[in-house]
Amino acid sequence: MLPVVENLLLEPKGDTLTIWFNRPETRNALSGAMADELAAVLEMLPGSDFRFVVLRGKGGAFCSGGDLKMFRNVFQEGMPREDIVAFNADFGRMMVAIKQLPQLFVVVIEGAAMAGGLGIACLADVVVTTADAKFALTEVTLGIPPAQITPVVISRIGASQARRLLLTAQRFDGVEAHRLGFAHFVEPDLEALESRLQSVLRDAHRGAPGAIRLTKQIISASESLEGAELVQFAAERFADAMLGDEAREGMRAFAEKRPAQWGSMKSSDTGSTK
Fold first, then answer.
1. Which distant-in-sequence residues (6+ apart) come within 8 Å of 36 by Cβ?
2. What are the distances in angstroms from CA 119 to CA 27, 60, 86, 182?
3. Do the bridges between strand 185-187 and strand 112-114 make them parallel or antiparallel, or are there none, so unpaired?
4. Torsions phi, psi of 140, nearest 5?
5. Closest Cα partner for 241 from 213, 270, 265?
6. Which of 156, 153, 159 is nearest to 137 (CA)?
7. DSSP states of 146-197 as a string?
């Protein structure tokens, strides 16, 4: 069951859950309450029947970054250093939870994708943006470092370009986001954006849920393991899949020249989840 939320809008449709940032009056600035709600949704997703998760923003903006009212409260209330550390670490843990989602994670961007909002988008498996969307990593202009998003920005576009954008806060549009590697698809308008999203999801339905989950595990492991350890990890995941029902169905469907019937299979049919 989906959690009750006030700052998000949850739209389940079949095997796809669309999560909307829903504070359009602030251009979907990421408040503490919104972050807590997103964390609660993320917590239930690994055990759900959803195969695809789409994140986007209401009101013509994706996310304008952290809520400045929240930052002002730090000064007004004299928040202790350890509380600030814990608050920032909570955001980092939320990003780790996004990275570990077993589902295909798609981010759709229109309007602003700034600071922490852009950091979250860096964790997407697929990003679709409009050409006129506005991007920037603005933290240093506020006198703070982009603490938790720095590693994911580097991972997304490489250290050289990440240094430039993290240290200068230069703004760029969707066309540049595509060139840099932030976005996979850049579309001229909202109609084309919606069409591209549907195309991505349609193609993704050809993949087996368990195989997607295991592939994401191998992708993640590739960032921390190497050599024989990575070889063994990937081989274990391959064996997990080969001993599951998805592989049998996939091979059978290929031989019979028909689409595989993933929809009738449960996640427990995909072998070990180690």
1. none
2. 16, 19, 19, 10
3. unpaired
4. -65, -25
5. 270
6. 153
7. -TTTHHHHHHHH-HHHHHHHHHH---EEHHHHHHHTS-SEEESSHHHHHHHH
Is 21 within 8 Å of 170 (Cβ atoms)?
no
Cβ proximity of 128 and 106 under 8 Å: yes
Question: Can you read off the two tokens belonging to residue 167?
Answer: 């240290």
From residue 187, alpha-carbon distances to 23, 77, 182, 184, 195 in Å are 24, 44, 14, 10, 9
Q: Hey, which bits of the chain come out as E strands?
A: 8-13, 16-21, 52-57, 104-109, 112-114, 126-130, 134-136, 172-173, 185-187
Query: Is 16 in a helix, a strand, or coil?
Result: strand
**CA-to-CA distance for 142 and 127, rounded, in angstroms?**
27
pLDDT at position 263 is 61
Report the alpha-carbon distance of residue 128 to residue 199 in Å, rounded: 11
Percent of the chain with pLDDT over 70: 96
State pLDDT tens for residues 204-250: 999 999 999 999 999 999 999 999 999 999 999 999 999 999 999 99
According to DSSP, the residues that pair with 30 across neighbouring strands are 66
The whole-angstrom separation of Cα 107 and Cα 127 is 5
Amino acid at 106: V
Mean pLDDT value across residues 162-169: 98
Q: How far apart are CA 165 and CA 232, in angstroms?
A: 37
Show the tokens assigned to 119: 């950091």
Residues in the chain: 274
Q: Reply yes or no on whether the pLDDT at 183 is more than 90.
A: yes
